[in-house]
Amino acid sequence: MIPSVDVPPGDPRLPTSPDVIVVYSDLNCSFAHVAVHRLHETRDRLGLTGRVRFDHRAFPLELFNLGVNERPGVDSEVAVLGALEPDAGWQLWQEKDWRYPVTMLPALEAVQAAKHQGLHVSEQLDRALRKAFWAQSRCISLRNVILDVAAETGVVDVPDLAGRLDRGEARAAVIEQFESARDDRVVCSPHLFLADGTNAANPGVSARWVNGDFGVGFPVIDSDEPDIYRTLLEKAASLA
Q1: Which end of the chain has fewer CB atoms within 10 angstroms, the N or the C?
Q2: What global pTM score does this model have?
Q3: pLDDT of residue 7
Protein backbone atom coordinates (compact mmCIF):
# COMPACT_ATOMS: atom_id res chain seq x y z
CA MET A 1 0.00 0.00 0.00
CA ILE A 2 1.26 3.46 -0.93
CA PRO A 3 1.02 6.04 1.88
CA SER A 4 -0.53 9.22 0.53
CA VAL A 5 -2.63 12.29 1.22
CA ASP A 6 -5.50 13.67 -0.80
CA VAL A 7 -4.41 15.85 -3.71
CA PRO A 8 -7.19 17.59 -5.66
CA PRO A 9 -7.18 17.53 -9.48
CA GLY A 10 -5.36 20.52 -10.93
CA ASP A 11 -3.11 20.87 -7.90
CA PRO A 12 0.24 22.43 -8.90
CA ARG A 13 2.09 19.55 -7.27
CA LEU A 14 0.74 17.05 -9.81
CA PRO A 15 2.44 16.23 -13.12
CA THR A 16 1.01 17.79 -16.26
CA SER A 17 1.15 14.48 -18.12
CA PRO A 18 -0.04 11.04 -16.94
CA ASP A 19 3.24 9.35 -17.88
CA VAL A 20 5.25 11.54 -15.49
CA ILE A 21 6.24 11.17 -11.83
CA VAL A 22 6.93 14.47 -10.08
CA VAL A 23 9.88 14.27 -7.71
CA TYR A 24 10.16 17.05 -5.14
CA SER A 25 13.63 16.94 -3.58
CA ASP A 26 16.85 18.70 -2.74
CA LEU A 27 20.20 17.70 -4.21
CA ASN A 28 21.80 17.87 -0.77
CA CYS A 29 19.50 15.21 0.70
CA SER A 30 20.74 11.67 1.19
CA PHE A 31 17.22 10.23 1.29
CA ALA A 32 16.55 11.83 -2.10
CA HIS A 33 19.78 10.38 -3.48
CA VAL A 34 18.49 6.93 -2.54
CA ALA A 35 15.06 7.66 -4.03
CA VAL A 36 16.36 8.96 -7.36
CA HIS A 37 18.74 6.03 -7.71
CA ARG A 38 15.90 3.59 -7.05
CA LEU A 39 13.61 5.35 -9.50
CA HIS A 40 16.14 5.09 -12.32
CA GLU A 41 17.24 1.55 -11.57
CA THR A 42 13.71 0.21 -11.11
CA ARG A 43 12.48 1.95 -14.26
CA ASP A 44 15.28 0.30 -16.21
CA ARG A 45 14.57 -3.15 -14.75
CA LEU A 46 10.88 -2.85 -15.58
CA GLY A 47 11.59 -1.76 -19.15
CA LEU A 48 9.74 1.51 -18.58
CA THR A 49 12.51 3.87 -19.65
CA GLY A 50 10.96 6.07 -22.33
CA ARG A 51 7.45 5.30 -21.07
CA VAL A 52 7.61 6.91 -17.62
CA ARG A 53 9.48 10.18 -17.14
CA PHE A 54 10.58 12.11 -14.05
CA ASP A 55 9.78 15.78 -13.52
CA HIS A 56 12.21 17.03 -10.91
CA ARG A 57 10.88 19.86 -8.75
CA ALA A 58 12.94 21.83 -6.24
CA PHE A 59 12.40 21.28 -2.53
CA PRO A 60 15.15 23.73 -1.48
CA LEU A 61 15.97 22.86 2.10
CA GLU A 62 18.05 26.01 2.47
CA LEU A 63 14.94 28.14 1.89
CA PHE A 64 12.90 26.12 4.36
CA ASN A 65 15.68 26.02 6.96
CA LEU A 66 17.34 29.38 6.17
CA GLY A 67 20.64 27.62 5.53
CA VAL A 68 22.13 24.76 3.54
CA ASN A 69 22.04 21.31 5.13
CA GLU A 70 24.72 21.29 7.81
CA ARG A 71 27.68 19.10 6.98
CA PRO A 72 27.77 17.20 10.34
CA GLY A 73 24.20 16.07 9.71
CA VAL A 74 24.89 15.17 6.11
CA ASP A 75 28.02 13.22 7.07
CA SER A 76 26.12 11.29 9.73
CA GLU A 77 23.70 10.04 7.08
CA VAL A 78 26.22 8.77 4.53
CA ALA A 79 27.05 5.41 6.12
CA VAL A 80 23.43 4.71 7.07
CA LEU A 81 21.82 5.69 3.76
CA GLY A 82 24.76 4.41 1.76
CA ALA A 83 24.12 0.96 3.18
CA LEU A 84 20.61 1.01 1.69
CA GLU A 85 21.84 1.67 -1.86
CA PRO A 86 25.64 1.46 -2.06
CA ASP A 87 25.58 1.50 -5.87
CA ALA A 88 24.09 5.01 -5.87
CA GLY A 89 27.60 6.34 -5.13
CA TRP A 90 28.74 7.71 -1.78
CA GLN A 91 31.76 8.95 0.08
CA LEU A 92 32.46 11.27 2.96
CA TRP A 93 33.44 14.74 1.74
CA GLN A 94 37.02 14.50 0.44
CA GLU A 95 37.65 18.03 -0.79
CA LYS A 96 38.87 20.97 1.28
CA ASP A 97 36.36 22.16 3.86
CA TRP A 98 36.03 25.56 2.19
CA ARG A 99 34.92 23.86 -1.04
CA TYR A 100 31.84 22.34 0.56
CA PRO A 101 28.69 23.74 -1.14
CA VAL A 102 27.09 26.65 0.68
CA THR A 103 24.02 26.64 -1.59
CA MET A 104 22.24 24.23 -3.89
CA LEU A 105 20.16 26.87 -5.66
CA PRO A 106 22.39 27.17 -8.78
CA ALA A 107 22.33 23.39 -9.28
CA LEU A 108 18.58 23.23 -8.66
CA GLU A 109 18.16 26.02 -11.23
CA ALA A 110 20.27 24.08 -13.71
CA VAL A 111 17.96 21.07 -13.46
CA GLN A 112 14.99 23.31 -14.19
CA ALA A 113 16.78 25.10 -17.03
CA ALA A 114 17.61 21.74 -18.62
CA LYS A 115 13.89 21.01 -18.98
CA HIS A 116 13.91 23.28 -22.04
CA GLN A 117 15.83 20.42 -23.69
CA GLY A 118 13.33 17.83 -22.46
CA LEU A 119 12.61 15.88 -19.29
CA HIS A 120 15.09 13.18 -20.27
CA VAL A 121 17.90 15.73 -20.33
CA SER A 122 16.78 17.21 -17.03
CA GLU A 123 16.65 13.72 -15.47
CA GLN A 124 20.19 12.94 -16.56
CA LEU A 125 21.58 16.24 -15.29
CA ASP A 126 19.81 15.84 -11.95
CA ARG A 127 21.24 12.37 -11.43
CA ALA A 128 24.72 13.43 -12.53
CA LEU A 129 24.74 16.38 -10.12
CA ARG A 130 23.75 14.08 -7.25
CA LYS A 131 26.59 11.71 -8.08
CA ALA A 132 29.02 14.62 -8.42
CA PHE A 133 28.19 15.78 -4.89
CA TRP A 134 27.66 12.50 -3.04
CA ALA A 135 30.18 10.26 -4.79
CA GLN A 136 32.82 12.68 -6.08
CA SER A 137 32.92 15.52 -3.51
CA ARG A 138 32.46 18.22 -6.14
CA CYS A 139 31.16 21.66 -5.23
CA ILE A 140 27.99 21.81 -7.30
CA SER A 141 27.34 25.35 -6.10
CA LEU A 142 29.81 26.53 -8.75
CA ARG A 143 28.82 27.44 -12.30
CA ASN A 144 31.89 25.80 -13.83
CA VAL A 145 31.30 22.55 -11.94
CA ILE A 146 27.64 22.46 -12.96
CA LEU A 147 28.59 22.94 -16.62
CA ASP A 148 31.37 20.35 -16.40
CA VAL A 149 28.92 17.82 -14.95
CA ALA A 150 26.41 18.72 -17.68
CA ALA A 151 29.02 18.09 -20.36
CA GLU A 152 29.90 14.72 -18.82
CA THR A 153 26.31 13.49 -19.25
CA GLY A 154 26.75 13.51 -23.01
CA VAL A 155 23.13 14.60 -23.50
CA VAL A 156 22.99 18.20 -22.27
CA ASP A 157 23.40 21.08 -24.73
CA VAL A 158 25.87 22.91 -22.51
CA PRO A 159 25.93 26.30 -24.31
CA ASP A 160 22.12 26.41 -24.15
CA LEU A 161 22.18 25.53 -20.45
CA ALA A 162 24.89 28.09 -19.72
CA GLY A 163 22.93 30.81 -21.44
CA ARG A 164 19.78 30.06 -19.51
CA LEU A 165 21.69 29.99 -16.24
CA ASP A 166 23.43 33.27 -17.00
CA ARG A 167 20.10 34.93 -17.81
CA GLY A 168 18.59 33.56 -14.58
CA GLU A 169 15.73 31.96 -16.46
CA ALA A 170 15.14 29.14 -13.98
CA ARG A 171 15.23 31.01 -10.67
CA ALA A 172 11.52 31.82 -10.87
CA ALA A 173 10.69 28.13 -11.38
CA VAL A 174 12.67 27.13 -8.28
CA ILE A 175 10.88 29.75 -6.18
CA GLU A 176 7.48 28.75 -7.57
CA GLN A 177 8.17 25.13 -6.69
CA PHE A 178 9.29 26.16 -3.21
CA GLU A 179 6.03 28.07 -2.76
CA SER A 180 3.97 25.11 -4.01
CA ALA A 181 5.65 22.92 -1.39
CA ARG A 182 5.15 25.15 1.64
CA ASP A 183 2.67 24.69 4.49
CA ASP A 184 3.30 20.91 4.50
CA ARG A 185 1.85 20.45 1.02
CA VAL A 186 5.09 18.63 0.26
CA VAL A 187 6.12 16.74 3.36
CA CYS A 188 9.83 16.28 2.82
CA SER A 189 12.63 15.60 0.37
CA PRO A 190 11.87 13.33 -1.45
CA HIS A 191 8.12 13.38 -2.06
CA LEU A 192 6.71 11.78 -5.22
CA PHE A 193 3.42 12.60 -6.97
CA LEU A 194 1.55 10.76 -9.74
CA ALA A 195 -1.03 12.26 -12.07
CA ASP A 196 -3.98 10.62 -10.30
CA GLY A 197 -2.99 12.14 -6.95
CA THR A 198 -1.14 9.08 -5.65
CA ASN A 199 1.88 10.28 -3.69
CA ALA A 200 4.48 9.04 -1.26
CA ALA A 201 6.87 10.95 1.00
CA ASN A 202 10.30 9.29 1.40
CA PRO A 203 8.88 6.20 -0.31
CA GLY A 204 9.35 2.95 1.56
CA VAL A 205 11.74 4.33 4.17
CA SER A 206 10.89 4.95 7.82
CA ALA A 207 13.66 6.68 9.78
CA ARG A 208 14.24 8.40 13.11
CA TRP A 209 17.07 10.25 14.80
CA VAL A 210 18.70 9.08 18.02
CA ASN A 211 21.10 10.77 20.46
CA GLY A 212 20.12 14.18 19.14
CA ASP A 213 18.53 15.84 16.12
CA PHE A 214 20.04 16.34 12.66
CA GLY A 215 23.66 17.45 12.97
CA VAL A 216 24.06 16.05 16.49
CA GLY A 217 22.69 12.52 16.55
CA PHE A 218 22.39 9.98 13.76
CA PRO A 219 19.62 8.35 11.74
CA VAL A 220 18.26 4.87 12.30
CA ILE A 221 16.28 3.14 9.56
CA ASP A 222 13.31 1.37 11.12
CA SER A 223 12.01 -0.09 7.86
CA ASP A 224 12.89 -0.11 4.18
CA GLU A 225 10.57 -1.36 1.45
CA PRO A 226 12.19 -0.66 -1.94
CA ASP A 227 9.44 -2.56 -3.79
CA ILE A 228 7.30 0.57 -3.47
CA TYR A 229 9.21 1.96 -6.46
CA ARG A 230 7.98 -0.89 -8.62
CA THR A 231 4.43 -0.14 -7.48
CA LEU A 232 4.74 3.57 -8.19
CA LEU A 233 6.33 3.10 -11.61
CA GLU A 234 3.86 0.45 -12.72
CA LYS A 235 0.97 2.64 -11.61
CA ALA A 236 2.37 5.63 -13.51
CA ALA A 237 2.74 3.45 -16.62
CA SER A 238 -0.89 2.32 -16.28
CA LEU A 239 -2.05 5.94 -16.25
CA ALA A 240 -0.33 6.79 -19.53
Answers
A1: N
A2: 0.96
A3: 78
